[in-house]
Amino acid sequence: SQGGRLVELGGLVIRYGAIAAVQGVDLAIDAGEAVAIVGPNGAGKTSLLSAIAGVARPSAGSIRIAGKPLAGIALSDVVREGVALVPEGRNIFGSLTVMENLRLGTTPRRDASVPADIDRVFADFPILGERRDQPAGQLSGGEQQMLAIARAMLSRPRLLMLDEPSLGLAPNIVDKVYDILRQIRGQGVSLLLVEQNAARAFALADRACVMSRGVFTLTGTPAEIERHEAFDAAYFGVA
Ligand code: ATP
């Protein structure tokens, strides 16, 4: 694609003691591309995102961001390389205000345009502006998910990863979250999305991977995967 390759995983293995959570995964994501990973609990999806975020250390294999190996890079520098993760459960600090949570997203930055970017967050997410001085714990689940996404975007990522962004949210709120993700992708940001809700993720993704027991068992366009006889739609919660 025009923007070139952003992420490249080669033979990635992640072990926790005797447990091999990820057992040899290859994946390439181009700039501006959206990739969905679906699969049952315990498949290794969260571990994969953690490794790309620099949190989980690979036991074998390689991770490159824009051609640069991730091995040995400090966590804060992974963010500076343009990688942001919205983890499952969102990691919102409930006793801090909305504004304080947003400011945490800007800590890796050294540029002067942070205030302008925060103003833009409040333009894009008016509810966060209205509640900027309230404890984030008082926000609804959907508002907290918006806050987590807005906070991640304040690090100006080239790759935004989201772990179960629709979990626990009402369908109309999930619509809103996915509208936002579509806008973000439209700005040229790559997305890597882990979802139980395959139908939602597939509607957005350019490519999808089904992960099971630490490996990708199917990869292709969402349409190819949905057509595949091995793709058990009921299991993955397509509704
Ligand atoms: P889920 O949707 O349940 O989070 P997942 O596909 O994201 O599942 P992982 O969370 O990556 O899968 O877990 C993969 C395997 O690794 C599981 O067997 C899990 O128990 C194990 N595991 C994950 N994190 C750790 C850890 N920190 N220590 C030990 N085992 C772990």
Note down, in words, how this protein is organized.
The protein is an alpha/beta fold. The protein has helices at 45-52, 75-80, 98-104, 114-124, 126-130, 141-153, 171-186, 198-204, 222-227; strands at 5-16, 19-30, 34-38, 60-65, 68-69, 83-86, 159-163, 190-194, 207-212, 215-220. The strands form two sheets. The protein has a six-stranded mixed sheet, with helices on both faces. A four-stranded antiparallel sheet has the order 2-1-4-5, covered by helices on one side. Helix 3 (98-104) runs parallel beside helix 6 (141-153). The longest helix is centred in the C-terminal third of the chain and has 16 residues, at 171-186. The two termini are 32 Å apart. Keywords: Amino-acid transport, ATP-binding, Nucleotide-binding, Transport. This is ABC transporter ATP-binding protein.
